Amino acid sequence: MAMADYLIKGVSLPDGKKTEISIANGLIATVSSEFKGEANIVIDAQECVVLPGLVDLHTHLREPGREDAETVLSGSSAGVKGGFTAVSAMANTSPVADTAGVVEQVYRLGQAAGLLDVFPIGAVTQGLNGEALSEIGAMADSVARVRVFSDDGNCVSDPLVMRRALEYIKKFGGVIAQHAQDPRMTIGSQMNEGEISARLGLKGWPAVAEEAIIARDVLLADHVKSRLHICHLTTAGGVEIIRWAKARGIDVTAEVTPHHLLLTDDLASSYDPVYKVNPPLRTESDVHALREALADGTIDIVATDHAPHPTESKECEWQEAAFGMLGLETALSIVQKTMVDTGLMNWLQVADRMSIKPAQIGGYENHGQPLVVGSVANLVVINPTQKWTVDRDLVLSKSTNTPYHGHELPGVITHTFFKGKATFSNGNVFSAEGKK
Amino acid sequence: MKNLLSIADLSKSEAISILDTATELARVSDGAVKKLPTLRGRTIVNLFAEDSTRTRISFEAAAKRLSADVINFSAKGSSLSKGESLKDTAMTLQAMGADAVVIRHPASGAAQRLADSQWMSGSVINAGDGTHEHPSQALLDAFTIRKHLGMGGGDLTGLSVAIVGDILHSRVARSNVLLLSMLGAKITLVAPPTLLPVGIFNWPATVSYDFDSVIPHVDVVMMLRVQQERMSDLFFPNTREYSRYFGLNAERTACMKSGAIVMHPGPMNRGLEISAEVADSARSVITEQVTNGVSVRMAILYVLLAGGALEVGSN
């Protein structure tokens, strides 16, 4: 037998079965407890679980335009530390990713970083202005092969524009990822509208502003028989609409962020903008509805909405601060804490929600593959029995706006493998050129 | 007590001791020599990032009567209007040795941000933050109510107060609901449904959309300013209709209990939420609120900076 590059010993598959996985030539070479042969690097992974490499369908990498907050390289580093082998770069960069030129630039920056696959998302409308369709076909046919289109940050609020976009992407099997936020209902909105916003005197962002758009868009998707994805679902009412739409056979998928599975709007009482995010943190009952929906499959995937911001954008008054929080490096730990440790999901379901399904929705080849011989070795190894403490001064993102600073979280990621190479190993990031 | 950010930070006994201290200090203000040496050598900065006349002057007068040095820092013509961040402004004030900062700011929570940050170490007094709170206004309102209707000092048990108008955007209403209810008053909020917060259900107050049914039963009618621009934001059809349902005019005042008083935090829109004749009537204690504001703000500075309340009856 040929020499393996890696042998992962004593690891549990997502279904709990113990095995050994060897990796050679970028592929999973063997999955067997009777590995016979030699390996360059042997990893003792007792207590660890191996999952297909995580796939994020919603990542703000900020490049081009805001390289002070994040770059494709720094975001990739944060990604591999968080167990990701693919991320999806949102289109709200400067310039906006609304042409083949910009998406190809981002794609090539991802290739050059070499830590994971960066799949650019194309803007639905030119300049995210919600009025004229961007060059959707050119982006789909580009080197970047864009399949997911989103104006994220903005809602495609005009129903006619949304209808046309949904129709147009059928040509190449694309999907529209909608940031569901009625703009008129949320002018100047700062946080979830309810008991806490009433007390704090912060302008409310009502749940209905999300739910009304979701309801409209599932009906539009049904009418034109196209594929719709709902970004960062946050409300119990939104869950009910998705459940109804799926029961009717409408081709809709939905995502939830880790932070909406854990954090609630009462955190705004500190007026610390690290908790300011769009859509906003909701209530305890919304959090429970989101967890249940992720467990029963009504919500298909977890996506980070990783949103880096420079210090000055958060070190200010709440209403002056930018919306968004870091997510890549903590996503798997938050999912373990909220879904696995609570008994709502097992590791098979985690693999499904964080790798298999997002890869399917994005059409990302070689990601979310079964852990069998011959699959591309995109893997993450996590030790769920260990804990770690988040320190914003130690994040690999260029920004520090994590809401979990000082939190002790379960689940230590020990290794991430991308195309058969360890991009992350015991705390260190490795690119093709070596250790970072 | 180091800061005054929200009425929610005060206990009932702390609130009452501020009011009692204000009563004692009011006697000083009535005397021939209006000044006390208490805060001599201390520096108080009035940081007003939003226009205000009466609150700034009131805090300035209060600080000066306690012999503090006062520095006024206003939005117009200062570094604030040049886009300086709150952090940099705070660090500048710290570097200049401010013992206390009285902050008025258009952003809800700005005072708390200042107090919770490591940007400065002095006391922070919230003089109105966005649509959140205005604790010194609530304290002067409670002081005024107690003076007119209180049963010899103490709290406001047994009194009924109607707060009327734009509750949604009012920091005065938020602070007054917390303080007056803590002091035992029964509160009714009167407003069109559009100008009440959605999440109001657990506030210690009842809600009414019908001013006429409330007015005969209350001891205090507190009117709130209505911003003209609320009309364009669709909160009500026009100012005439607002006035008709929620304005305090002579006919409505005639239905008030004998001895009941009319209050307004100012500045008033005469003819919109309050008619001129009511504003100038015998029931109106509006200018007295301004007078009391100085004593109450002296008491706040005294308690925060001189380390405790003034003993009742002391000099």
What does this structure look like?
The complex is a heterodimer of chains A (436) and B (315). Chain A is of the alpha/beta class and 436 residues long. Chain A has two domains: 4-50 and 377-435, Roll (Urease, subunit C, domain 1); 53-362, TIM Barrel (Alpha-Beta Barrel). In chain A, 28% of the residues lie in helices and 23% in strands. Chain A is built from eleven helices and 20 strands. Chain A has helices spanning 72-81, 100-113, 136-141, 159-168, 195-200, 207-224, 236-247, 258-262, 284-296, 331-340, 347-362; strands at 4-12, 18-24, 27-31, 39-44, 49-52, 54-59, 84-89, 117-120, 148-149, 175-178, 191-192, 204-205, 228-230, 252-256, 301-302, 379-389, 408-418, 421-425, 428-431, 434-435. In chain A, strand 13, helix 7 and strand 14 (252-256) form a beta-alpha-beta unit. In chain A, helix 4 packs across helix 6 (207-224) and helix 6 (207-224) packs parallel to helix 7 (236-247). The radius of gyration of chain A is 21 Å and the shape is globular. Chain B has 315 residues and is of the alpha/beta class. Chain B has two domains: 7-133 and 292-305, Aspartate/ornithine carbamoyltransferase (Rossmann fold, 3-Layer(aba) Sandwich); 135-289, Aspartate/ornithine carbamoyltransferase (Rossmann fold), CATH 3.40.50.1370. Helix content of chain B is 37%, strand content 14%. Chain B contains eleven helices and nine strands. Chain B has a five-stranded parallel sheet, covered by helices on one side. Chain B has a four-stranded parallel sheet with strand order 2-1-3-4, sandwiched between helices. In chain B, helix 6 (171-182) links the parallel strand 5 and strand 6 (186-190). The longest helix of chain B has 20 residues, at 286-305. The two termini of chain B are 22 Å apart. The mean pLDDT of chain B is 93. Chain A binds chain B through residues 190, 193-204, 206, 270-272, 312, 315-320, and chain B through 85-87, 105, 107-110, 112-113, 116, 129-133, 171, 174, 197-203.
